[in-house]
Amino acid sequence: MPHQNHMKRSMADGTNPEAKRSRCHEEPNRKIYSSDAEEAAKNLLKLSKSDPQRIPNFSSFNSSNGIMSKHTQPANAGSIQNTAKKLVIKNFKEKPSMPANFQEVTWEKLEAAVDAIHSSCAIRYSLEELYKAVENMCSYKLATGLYSQLMSRCQKHVRANLGQFLAETLDYEQFLKLIDNCWQNHCRQMIMIRSIFLFLDRTYVLQNSSILSIWDMGLDLFRQHIISDKVVETRTVDGLLRLIERERNGEAINRQLLKSLLRMLSDLNIYQSAFEKKFLDATEMLYTAEGKRLVQEREVSEYLLHVDKRLAEENERLLLCLDQSTRKPLITCVEKHLLENHMKFILQKGLDQLLDENRISELTLLHNLCSRVKDGLKLLRMEFAVYIKKTGRVIVVNTSNDPEKDKDMVQQLLDFKDRIDFVIAKCFGKNEKFINAMKESFESFINQRQNKPAELIAKYVDSKLRAGNKEATEEELEKLLDKILVIFRFIHGKDVFEAFYKKDLAKRLLVGKSASVDAEKSMLSKLKQECGAAFTSKLEGMFKDMELSKDTSLSFRQALQQSESIDMSVNILTQGFWPAYPVVEVHLPSEMLRFQEVFKKFYLGKHHGRKLQWQPTLGHCVLKAEFNDYTARKEIQVSLMQTLCLLLFNDADELSFIDIQAATGIEEVELKRTLQSLACGKARVIYKSPKGKDVEDTDSFKFADDFKHKLYRIKINQIQMKETKEENASTTERVFQDRQYQVDAAVVRIMKTRKTLSHVLLISELFNQLKFPVKSPDLKKRIESLIEREYMERDKDNPNLYHYVA
């Protein structure tokens, strides 16, 4: 330890001036602390225990050494007492003085080291010695002069470097390399200098807030005398901008050089003032021109990829080279001039094509880019809605009035809806606003053609629920019904759907053509949940009638089982639940008439006051037939109309069309369809003469004795006549009649509540309450009708004011 060495030197020669001067030079104002003395005392005590003869004589110590001691000597010299009474340590009486030429000698040594660092030469002194020299100067309160001398020396060196940058022969890249080399050397030199003058930096500089640290002083000198020079600053910034421009044009540049110089500007605190504004101005000019040119030249998908590439490049440049303060203005500049200023044009030019071709990746990119600019998603959503309305209107509105085109309408709507849903889910992130825009658009275009979409949706459901539909499993059918229900929600004329759906459901139930009872009831449940119990009450009544009819038929068979065997099933239909069927009069065989009377007597015996009306057009029979080959017995499942025609051939081999019509009483059009199904279908149980696909009044028919078929029971379907315009108009008319009743009820309900109401407010209330599309002239007619029927009256003074008549 230093204090122990000091004590040893004192004991060796307490008055040695050289030792004293050396101690003053190396350790000014150094004190001998009591802890060192105590340690020395402990060592002496340990020594006395091991060898009492080796205890030194402290009485010989010189007082000038700063140690005062007292020991008690024993009377008997032969016996030594091992206890020392007291050891006291005091400071020097006089403070050591500084050599006369200490400051000059020390600075010469430090100056030589600084010059060696600046010239990249070897330093003659060790770093420890130089560091100690700085520490000693600070200890002797010479720090102020030392800092000034160091700053002056560094300033001289930095100024000397300016001249090399003023040569005009250097091109911009050589100039940038030269200034980067100078900057790197300056930083290395300042780091080395600071390591030598670290004691000065951590004591004097920290205690004086008005002066810069050694590192900041070096930066300030470089900024003042080199980079702040107008020529140097201009050439540096222009060179950097040219490097960035070359890189943006696709050339390979020295990115490390770019990164280093931009960090230099940032470290010197002139990045914003000298570089950033010029850089952003150059960026704006580049992307303004590029955006205007490319948005016209390129396809939208190519342009979007280019914009995305540019944004990625700028982000990478920000991450690797530029200061982070530039991020927001730079990215905003790129987004504004490549996207925001051209967003409407981009969407109008290419959105339809992207959606038509279902280009998912480009649509995803478009959505992401739109989300980056102000009102981008709003514009995308508006153009998206326009596309849905335009495309949907093409599907729904049949400008050519082609019935074949209408057949595919619902399937096209479902496919279109699936495609739009997929785009919203995959490309637009299931954004709720896009979903709402899609719903509004579908509701808009699907109701531009009044009533027809509702009718076609009902017929489409019928085609999927009808027996023989093998296109889908039960799970797939359930999913399909859910999709159909989504389209159903968009239509306003739900009562039109109900009318046509009820008519088709009746056919499926009565003829037994329903694919699945579970599917039928599932669809009914969905409709009930969607529209309420009142909407499905009649449909549920139809299912209830079918169940009750089974029980009635079973009871009928059991009641007549003992008296006679009648193989007959009857469906009892409540007239209010089922569609209105026209009354058809035909000539039934006496046996069938007898069966009808037996059943009528049975049924009315249980249900008094009811009236039965038979519907021959809905009946069907199973006939047992024998042909020439006695073994070729077959069972033929046919409609009642087909049955009446076939039974005639029991008494005749050949009959004319006129004869058959007179015998059966079937209406001409219906009879032609019936005979066509028997004589022109796949299973021909009668022959038509002359041959042909159509039945004429002059044709004759002959029983096919040689009929053969691989099946025992053969079902001959009645040829379904295409729905005529009259039948369609009849169904629509019934819907209109029902709507009139609903309008009348709504008017009376509103007037009963309000008592007195103006015409305008009444019409407004009606529009809010009615769930189907209706026009003001139609409402006005219903109001006039109610006035005539004295449900309400006009005000005597104001004809536009109505009063409810109680």
From TrEMBL:
Pathway: Protein modification; protein ubiquitination. Its main location: cytoplasm. GO terms for molecular function: ubiquitin protein ligase binding. GO terms for biological process: DNA repair; protein ubiquitination; ribosome biogenesis; ubiquitin-dependent protein catabolic process. Residues 18-30 have a biased composition (Basic and acidic residues). PROSITE patterns: CULLIN_1 (PS01256), CULLIN_2 (PS50069). Pfam families: Cullin, Cullin_AB, Cullin_Nedd8. The keyword Cell inner membrane does not apply. Belongs to the cullin family. This is Cullin-4B. It comes from Elysia chlorotica (Eastern emerald elysia). The lineage of its organism: Eukaryota, Metazoa, Spiralia, Lophotrochozoa, Mollusca.
